[in-house]
Amino acid sequence: MIATIIWFIIGLTALIAGAEMLVRGASRLASAFGISKLVIGLTVVAFGTSAPELAVSIQAGLDGRPDILLGNVVGSNITNILLILGVTALILPIAVNPRLIKLDVPVMIGMTILLLIFVLNGSITFWESLVFVILLCMYMLYLARNSGIPASEVIPKKRKPSKPMSFIYAIAGLVLLVAGARWLVQSAVLFAEAFGVSELVIGLTIVAIGTSLPEITTSIVAAIRREREMVVSSVVGSNILNILAVLGVTGLVLPEAIPVTDALIRFDIMILLAASFACIPIFFTGHLISRGEGALFLIYYIAYIIYLWLSSAEHQALPAFSNTMLMFVVPITLITIFMVAVREFNKRKRIWHFINKSEPDDKKE
Between the N and C ends of the chain, which has fewer C-beta atoms within 10 Å? Predict the structure, then answer.
């Protein structure tokens, strides 16, 4: 077990370091060729945020471990919403850009719904993966056209990085990424065997949290530095890329369709969909995720992890835990979100009436 833990840590470290080196090397290489900053941001950097998930998913798929593959993607998205937003909001209330509510959050919810539709037949086929990739290209193109940054903006010619060194840096990062993914997947399988739980649970928990560590670290640092808008945009963007890029590319690479278990369809994807929809009223209320709302997210994530492990172990406490969640926690949460939304609506309504009443006085003046 100690050897498995060590290899898991080594694999995770290599995975994160490899992703960082690959992104930096590719970014410097693109800069050396005079490619636009915008293009670099929308391709190299965007890919880098999902590189650990992509590497692990492809490796798991090639090893014939579809539960780890899908558990990694779905678990990472649940972790991004409930754990990352919960922890960072407890550190500092998180500002939400109105643009995210109008565009990116609906896209995230729409892609999650599309994922649910695709998996209902028990697998994700090559053609469904191709749809994900096409939608990814369309989303990137939309961002490029509506970013407000000229696409003709190029990196200044001075101080361009060395092409050979940048290429070596990128290749070294890719090697670390592939090796780290292999070690991580193999360790995850050994964890599942040692703990007597399913590979799906390992993928949804240990692997998902591990591959989300870059986002977790970035979000906490951003919250401490009071760069709060970066937190939500990073989470929402990562969730979109995990579905479109990770599942899309992985499905195109693998020789066969990706099988999906009933447990993932009936429970985990539903949890992801519920967490995604929960963002709407919480993001809507004052464009700020408060500490109380962050605590709510964190409590739900802890409850989700407890449920997974109790269910996998077929523990006798599972029925009581499930009933408690259904009869008390969920209704209280829904009532709280509804009351917060009504309060925000009334607040905005009063502001609107105040503005309308003040208009005649302004005209008189």
Answer: C
Residue-wise DSSP of 173-208: HHHHHHHHHHHHHHHHHHHHHHHT--HHHHIIIIIH
Residue 281 has pLDDT above 50, yes or no: yes
62-66: long-range contacts (C-beta < 8 A, 24 or more apart)?
Answer: 62/254, 63/185, 65/185, 65/189, 65/199, 66/258, 66/259, 66/260
Closest by CA to 258, choosing from 268, 275, 243, is 243
Using CA atoms in the order 275, 279, 281, 282, what is the torsion angle rounded to 10 degrees?
A: 110
Distance between CA 248 and CA 58 in Å, rounded? 11
Q: In terms of Cα–Cα distance, which of 231, 242, 172, 236 is closest to 207?
A: 242
Q: What is the CATH number of the domain that holds 280?
A: 1.20.1420.30
Other CB atoms within 10 A of residue 30 CB: 20
Task: Determine, yes or no, domain membership for 333.
Answer: no
With 0-12 CB in 10 A as exposed, 13-18 as middle and 19+ as buried, what is 283? buried
| pLDDT for 150 beyond 50 | no
Does residue 83 sit within a domain? yes
Q: How far is CA 283 from the centre of its chain?
A: 16
Task: Please give the distance of CA 281 from its chain centroid, rounded to a whole number.
Answer: 19
Nearest to 119 by CA among 284, 91, 111: 111
Q: What is the pLDDT of residue 151?
A: 43
Read off the pTM. 0.77
Q: Between residues 289 and 363, which one has the greater pLDDT?
A: 289
Helix (H, G, I), strand (E, B) or coil at 303: helix
The total number of structural domains in the chain stands at 1
Under 8 Å between Cβ of 119 and 128: no
**Looking at the domain assignment, is residue 95 inside a domain?**
yes
The per-residue pLDDT for 238 is: 82
Q: Is residue 352 part of a domain?
A: no
Domain hosting residue 172, numbered range: 2-315
